Amino acid sequence: MIGKLMGAAAALALLVGVASAGDFPDRDIQGIIQWGAGGSTDLVMRSVSPEAEKVLGRSIIMTNKTGGVGAIATQFVASQPADGYTLLMSAENPQLYKVMGLSNLDYGDFYPVNVLARGVPVLVANNDAPFNTIKELVDYVQANPGAVRMGSTGPGGLPSVVGGMLAAETDFKVTAVPFDGDGPALTAMQGGAVDFMPAVLGVAAEHVKAGRIKVLGIIDEEASPILPDAKPITADYPEFKKYLPWGPFFGVFVKRDTPDDVKAKLVEAFKAGAEKADFQKLLSDRGYVLLNISGDEADAFLRKWQSTTAWVVYDAGIAKKSPEEFGIAKP
Amino acid sequence: MIDAFSYLFMSWLQPELLALTAIGTCAGIYIGAIPGLSVTMAVSILISFTFGWQVNHALALMNGIFMGGVYGGSRTAILLNIPGAPAAIATALDGYPLAKKGEAGNAIGLSTVMSVLGGFIGIIVLALAAPTVSEFAIKFQPRDYMLLAVMGILLVGSLSGESLAKGIFAGALGMLLGTVGLDPMTAEQRFTFGSVELMNGISPVALMIGLFGVSEALNQLHSLHLPAIRQRVDKIIPSLADVKKYLPLSLQTSAIGVFIGALPGTGGDIAALMAYDHAKRVTKEPEVPFGEGAKEGLVAPETANNAAVGGAYIPMLTLGIPGDAVTAIIIGALFIHGLNPGPLLLVQKPDMFWFTVGNLTLANIFLLIFGLTGIRIFTRIIECPKGVLLPLILLLSVVGAYSINNSVSDVWWMLGFGVLGYFMKFYGYQVGPVVLGIILSRLMDDNWRRAIISERDSVSDFFFNMLASPLSATLFAAIVLILISQTPFWKKFRAGGSAVPKNG
């Protein structure tokens, strides 16, 4: 009996040894999703994976491991062997962990298999709010400092970053009311609990089209086909160009020291997934911009994002530590 | 109109949809019954699984699982004192004592019929009044959610058993445990001692499995020599007279269920607990006291949590706003299938609405069929020798705790709370208030802070605006009335000065 067990253990060890040497993948791959079931990250990952599975010839078993703004999933993947069998399926959050004091990890510790897409933020408001454009909002806030309530999703979330950019460029003092996510915050805004909020286009669009909330403008250099009436913020505030394009993003990552041939195989698989027409339609319907970048190109994107955002949140007084401590360059 | 009818009965007439709904409902009952396996989890797995299917097929399966799963939690709650989900906590309070008396069959039969009744009421409200209810539900502000949570915490009075002081202690412990983890408002770490595992807080489900299931198993080690209780299985389907007797109560608790379910910030768990409390308050003379196997204590939560299913679909189908965690995932599924769930869905694709109403009705009928069959076999579970049963409970608890978030630390928490629960029971503390505390802690904490931040930290503005809003003022008045009605002074006044004040 013990002999048999030893045999099995030896076979298993051999299997693992072979796995890192070549023929990747020879067993199913684990995909750790950083956010909860039904959220944007979850949906994007579950839609891109079926095609990637076909290329890999193995299943990707996806698990939602939520909590700590995604730090728990990130920590978990970092603690697994660097063999490409554990993927981190995540959003932009790890790029702020260091300055928020949440974790010592960021995407410098991971290799970007594919940064799939980025979202575009818009500013939306309650229909009864006394402003209709971004400029009117800024003027109103300046006339009534602190009186306007902004829906937020907690420090480091999209609304706090956009609020931070506005505060850096204009004299923008609002009362931020944090909710559990952009969905709950938008709901609360319809009930009148907050006056306006920055939100990702795809989540807000349906409510705007139905006339339940109004859009003030889009935080991008060009208008979006989803909401063509939303005026780009750069029209009134050209100084915003230096931040743009900016938005939340989704990506698939493995540990940085994963063998190169394994990385290449994964890159190939997720590239195929991202090129699929169904997936692209799903993204564009939802107002996301396809990126489909990996390797050095993705690293450059991630670094720029981190430098812009970390300094915005630091200057807005949201961050706990200075980006300088971690060698994050000032943009 | 003819179109609406054809969509209403679509899933009844197409054999594939009919079969998928049946499979979903049946699977849902078992998923719901296993603690830790949740409907939320099952539906999210189905999103990948049904990726290539037609949307109606995927929905039929998900609707079935949702209906069945909410009901399924009552099975283990009654038989083993392990609620399959937080929505079944209140069911365990009176359901398990019934099983101990050998009436598990009867209890399951009654809870099935009443769940189906609650389910139907939820669906009827969904079909007839969805736009009105959802417009009202989104009027709820953080302040109102806070008041609702305060109303919920008053339930400690109903759950604390012999000693109110011990109940309050247990409730406060639960609320304290609920604060552990990353504070969602400030990303500040509370009681995490630098551990990443603690950032996510303590899972209420792990706590629930430990306090109920494991502590019960430990407790039974004292009585290993006693023979298992013989279960009577002759009277499973409740008599018409019984159903009639509980009908007024179940209509009230279903209404509570639909409404709490329709509120975007609350779900079946809070609905069931509030319904239980309501039953306790309006039932003047139960045949057996609450907590010792009162049928009213079984009827109330079971009608409410199934009524909450229909309720949860109300804001989802009319506004694209999820009513609870499961409908949040179904919204995601609709989006993957190329629909744009939002306020325009009802206008652009009314067929989705009628299909869902018809399909939920069908799932509810299957629930009655699957729920009432196989009860005999189920009740055999508690007749098996304790040497088999107790390890089985422990195994189920470990698997359940692990599957919440695929984390071993949840298993440790669960076991730790099991030991704690054992000593709590030993010293006369009820475990119910702890679970209540941890469930309501976040609701109360977050919404109080949202409310006071909105008032720019001015307590006087907070009270002024609370009394100025009709909704908040009503909720506040209700809380004050509930409190006063429990004072000896009020009881004396009601009884014309003759009654002896009783601790409530």
UniProtKB/TrEMBL annotation, chain A:
SUPFAM superfamilies noted in UniProt: Periplasmic binding protein-like II (SSF53850)
Signal peptide start and end residues: 1-21
Stored Gene3D superfamilies: Bordetella uptake gene, domain 1 (3.40.190.150), Periplasmic binding protein-like II (3.40.190.10)
Entries under InterPro entries matching the protein: BUG, Bug_dom1
Coiled-coil boundaries: none
Keyword field: Signal
Family: Belongs to the UPF0065 (bug) family.
PANTHER family linked: BLR1237 PROTEIN (PTHR42928:SF5), TRICARBOXYLATE-BINDING PROTEIN (PTHR42928)
Protein name in UniProt: Tricarboxylate transport protein TctC
Organism: Paramesorhizobium deserti
TrEMBL record, chain B:
Residue intervals of the DUF112 domain: 18-436
InterPro entries recorded: DUF112_TM
Keywords: Membrane, Transmembrane, Transmembrane helix
Parts of the chain that traverse the membrane: 78-96, 108-133, 198-218, 325-346, 352-375, 387-405, 411-441, 462-484
Name of the protein this chain belongs to: C4-dicarboxylate ABC transporter permease
Native species: Paramesorhizobium deserti
Record lineage: Bacteria, Pseudomonadati, Pseudomonadota, Alphaproteobacteria, Hyphomicrobiales
